Automatic annotation (TrEMBL):
Family as reported in the entry's similarity comment: Belongs to the short-chain dehydrogenases/reductases (SDR) family.
One Pfam family named in its UniProt record: adh_short_C2
Protein name: 3-oxoacyl-ACP reductase
Cross-referenced Gene3D superfamilies: NAD(P)-binding Rossmann-like Domain (3.40.50.720)
Highest rank taxon of the organism: Bacteria
Boundaries of every Ketoreductase domain copy: 206-381
Residue ranges of coiled coil: none
Amino acid sequence: MTDKYQGFVSTPIGKLLVKNLGLPNPTKLERYSAGDPLVRGTVLVGGRGRVAESLPGLLDVLGIASASQQAEGEKYKGLVFDATGLTASEQLVELQEFFTPVLRSLETCPHVVVIGTPPELVEGRERVAQRALEGFTRSLGKEIGKGGTVQLVYVAPGYEGSILSTLGFLLSPKTAYVSGQVARIGAHNEKKAVEVADWTQPLAGKVAFVTGASRGIGEQIARVLHRDGATVVGLDVPQAADELQKVMKEIDGDWLTLDITAPDAPQRIAHHLKEKHGGVDIVVHNAGVTMDKKLANQKPERFGKVLEINIEAPELITQELLSQGVINANGRIIGVSSMAGIAGNLGQTSYAASKAGVIGFVDSLAGELKDGITINAVAPGFIITQMTAAMPLASREVGQRLNTMAQGGLPVDVAEAIAWFASAGSTAVNGNVVRVCGQMMLGA
């Protein structure tokens, strides 16, 4: 599926109309391919605080070139500012002093990261200053243009060395469609990040279980996790068996066909993962359905079915895997929520309830999991798939343009965020819900 409007505005007549009518002019986003460096260019670092001195060394581990002083005429692919040293609101001007001189020196599709301290861990004026960072980064995300992204990472004291996987994700093209987001490191997990031997294969030796893996977002999740070194076990309904097997054979994976709402599904999944793979390291609850109707016209069985597939089944499967000890130490549980679960959507009361439930699922387990197991979720916005391609033209175009990027995302964008959560280096990333929505104008 392609964005025909984006193709049109790159033509001579399209460029003319954009200039004269003020139409959206989306930048072609850069995305990561296997074998690429994480950053093609230099990252400028600045600020003062707990992370500032170690930033160049951390970036060097990831193979990212950095500079600590802006050089005249130099172009930058990324910016990192340590704001953990800001302890009063009047010090927030340091953000302007760092960013304003360099913003016009950014290359196309730059990536910006601000690092702060979780406001709930500090008090008084420092808490005020740290909370202010959210407004700054979200606004800068809507200003930066050129296909750029801006994120805020709150790092708890003592977890400064656990940010490698997050820096690698947020500064790279893997975060092409993620902007204006807040990630927390060290908020719910006492275990620090596990050292990753090879950052090009952070999932080497891991077993990943992905539901709804035969096509669309689920297929891309399976392919990206395989790219990063995981052995993938894909699941889908029996009707999708041929598609599922085709995908799994292409990535040397395993497969399981069943209805996740069947009464014995959690036990069958647990048995398969334990007997064939000795357990599982990554569980991705991707399977989901929509049965859209305004609530006044909704039938109980359809409303209930959406809840059953989208949230009840993930809860029961996770409970079974945990109770049987099938999820290995330092394991990952990852849910797929939706912007509908955050902002709501016309005719999607059942779907939005189920996807908000996924966020509640993350909240309920994040502080309870042991042995370095984490739970996080992604919340996709408008992602271009076969389903969205079937939408009426006007609805589809509006849905794609109402974000900072002025375009829809791709299934791989969701998969990349999931791969970040899945990384062995993301042990301290727990209890997060990150929106893959191009920073939607509403609800983001």
